[in-house]
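Homework help board

Subject: predicted structure for assignment chain

Our instructor gave us this sequence and asked us to write out the predicted structure in C-alpha cell form, then describe one feature. I got the C-alpha cells but I'm not sure how to describe them. Can anyone check?
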Amino acid sequence: MTTYHDVPADLLISDLSQRLADNDAISAPEWAEFVKTGTHRERPPTQSDWWYIRSAAVLRKVALKGPIGANHIAQLFGGPKDRGVKPNRAVAGSRKVARTILQQLAAAKLIIDTHNTAGTVTLGKVVTPSGQALLDESAHAVRPQAEEKYPGLTRY
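My C-alpha cell output:
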C-alpha cells in the first residue's frame, strides 16, 4: 500500500485539500479572506481555497513530525521578513491560522493531543488512525500521477 512518504508533497497536498474541502468540520473562518499568513507577507493569499491547501499541508506536517504544536507549525510556515535595507530575518507564520487549523483537524478527529505518562503535560498533536487512513488513501490515489511525473518512483 502506498503511504504519504512515497509520493511527492505537491501532488499529495492538492488531492488531500480536495478531500478536506468535503469534510464539514473543516471550513475557512469568515476572517480568512482578509488575513495574512504571516508578518513576512505583504498581502493575503489570492487563492480562494488556500485554507484547505494549508489544512492539508498541516495534516501532512503533523503526520511527519508529530507530536508537534501550533508554535512549531507556525515556524514551519514562516519565511524571510523584508526589513528594508537591513538583512532579511526569519519570522514565523501566523499562529492564529496554525492554531485554528489544528483545532479544526482535531474536531474532524484527524489529529489528537498526546500527553506524558502522568497525563499532566500536553506533548503535541499526532495523527489518529482515521487521519492516517485519509493520508494513505490520498497517497494511493495520486501514485499513478506521481509515477508519470517522476519516472524514478516506479522503483519504489
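Reply (TA_rk): Your C-alpha cells look well-formed. For the description, you could write something like this. The domain at 9-155 is CATH 1.10.10.10 (Arc Repressor Mutant, subunit A). That's the kind of observation they're looking for.
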